[in-house]
Design goal:
Elements lengths: L5 E11 L17 E5 L2 H12 L12 H10 L1 E7 L2 E10 L4 E8 L9 H15 L3 E6 L6 H7 L3 E11 L5
Parallel strand pairs: 5-6
Antiparallel strand pairs: 1-6, 1-7, 2-3, 3-4, 4-5
Helix pairs in contact: 1-2
């Protein structure tokens, strides 16, 4: 893709409001993983930039260190580890009566091996510990299995919208 190109994106907003609706994957994860809570703006920035690059995550690339620190103080960040190596991350942003799964991503070598659904299940369970509803939004530039994974876990579509997004990365 031309980095300066603007592309059409469909953004899908999903929600789950009852822990009983959460459906865990039926098959075991392809690799064992652990979740480790971390903090700090530099950590959030690192995962956002590296995991988000192939998916056009550009809206926060111009953030200052102070903005990243404020973000990190507001969210709960978990690193996904496989054999002691960082495989990805997720961030939960608590709000009034709702937790937003702000980001969830796996590095490419860990995609498609059967851990994404299990990580998402763990993220939603943790979200329910923080609030009675968990929501997320995903776009057509995100991983090809993201929307199906959210729906397979029991999340329901509450809204869709079309927008254009710049893929230009700040210098």
């Amino acid at each position: 893709m031309n980095p300066a190109q603007r592309v059409a994106v469909t953004r899908t907003f999903l929600e789950i409001a009852d822990p009983a609706d959460l459906r865990a994957p039926t098959r075991a994860p392809g690799r064992e993983f652990e979740l480790r809570r971390v903090s700090g703006g530099a950590t959030s920035r690192h995962f956002y930039e590296t995991i988000g690059e192939p998916y056009g995550w550009t809206d926060r690339l111009t953030w200052s260190d102070a903005q990243w620190e404020r973000w990190a103080a507001r969210v709960e960040t978990r690193v996904i580890e496989v054999d002691g190596e960082a495989a990805g991350y997720f961030e939960l942003e608590p709000g009034r009566g709702v937790v937003t799964l702000a980001y969830l991503g796996l590095f490419e070598p860990y995609q498609g091996i059967g851990i994404g659904g299990h990580v998402l299940t763990a993220a939603i369970r943790r979200g329910f510990e923080l609030a009675p509803r968990v929501q997320v939004n995903t776009g057509t530039l995100d991983g090809p299995h993201a929307l199906a994974n959210y729906e397979a876990r029991g999340m329901r579509v509450i809204h869709r919208r079309s927008e254009t997004q710049s893929l230009e990365r700040p210098r």
